[in-house]
Specification:
By secondary structure, the chain is an alpha/beta fold. It contains 8 helices and 9 strands. It binds nicotinamide-adenine-dinucleotide.
């Protein structure tokens, strides 16, 4: 049993993309509590700085770095700022739902326009490739690295209205499995955490005005509730530690049992 997480990934430098909010912020906070030095990446520098302040207030070490993971020039500048890192969490991603005004607009694939596909593929797949490609050479040279990508059950099970998003996330899983096979002998592991629906962002806002909101949506979840942004963080720390040296090429669901592991 792990009784003390306080130095579990001590001495490691970790970058979490899109960690100015949500799941990424929670993973970054947990990694800092587990002893890592954190780089907080976000499109929005203000959000990143706020998370850095939270980590520092707890006695941890963190730095902000603004960058768009989809833009190779921006990623290049980010790497120049951070230098080599040991742990990369590809968390930035989105595209589950298109929002129209205050209402959820669910769009079937037949109703989408091709120009809507590219941004979804770019943030959920191409961004993962750019950031991983940029940080991997130093990990290989140093003989140690952890790459973790946050994906979605839309890409494992397949969900209505999330077809292109699911395709991008499934591709990120395929990428991770293939890369794991390439780099395992050089001390680098590559895994994914697959999430179910989280009570976060717009969903959390909608729940504020509807007391039954979560219960209705959680019927398909054996644990009986939707996810919280903290739920994946302990597993993220574990997978990015020395303890997970023999764990690679895997996709771990953190989804309240919504879709059994394949
Ligand atoms: N929220 C869910 O229900 C859910 C479900 C399954 C999977 N996921 C996945 O979990 C991950 C985190 O989701 P979330 O809901 O916490 O995210 P979020 O929408 O709260 O975004 C987190 C942060 O990412 C930043 N960001 C967005 N695009 C970026 C870019 N191109 N470069 C850098 N930063 C960027 C945003 O500014 C934001 O601060 C994503 O990969 C998402 O696909 C989320």
């Amino acid at each position: 049993m792990i009784r003390d997480w306080s130095n579990f990934i001590g001495g490691r430098a970790a970058l979490v993309t899109g960690s100015g909010a949500g799941v990424g912020r929670a993973i970054a906070l947990h990694m800092a509590r587990a002893g890592a030095e954190l780089w907080i990446n976000d499109l929005d520098l203000g959000r990143a700085e706020q998370v850095v302040a939270e980590i520092e207030a707890e006695g941890g070490t963190a730095h902000p770095v603004a960058a768009d993971v989809c833009d190779p020039a921006s990623v290049h500048d980010m790497v120049a700022t951070t230098g080599p890192i040991d742990i990369l969490v590809n968390n930035a991603g989105s595209g589950v739902l298109a929002w129209s005004g205050g209402d959820t607009r669910l769009v079937s694939f037949a109703e989408t326009d091709p120009h809507e596909w590219e941004p979804v593929m770019r943030v959920n797949l191409t961004g993962v490739l750019h950031v991983t490609h940029s940080y991997l050479p130093d990990m290989l040279e140093r003989g140690w690295g952890r790459i973790l990508t946050i994906v979605s059950d839309s890409g494992r099970r397949g969900e209505r209205f999330q077809v292109v998003y699911g395709a991008a996330k499934a591709a990120a899983m395929g990428f991770s499995r293939g890369l794991a096979a390439e780099v395992g002998r050089q001390g680098v592991t590559v895994n994914c955490i697959s999430l179910g629906t989280m009570m976060h962002g717009r969903l959390a806002e909608m729940a504020e005005t509807d007391p039954d909101f979560e219960a209705k949506r959680a019927k398909a979840y054996p644990v009986g509730r939707l996810g919280r942004v903290d739920d994946p963080a302990p597993l993220a720390v574990l997978l990015c530690s020395d303890a997970a040296e023999w764990v690679t090429g895997q996709v771990y669901p953190v989804d309240g049992g919504y879709v059994q592991a394949l």
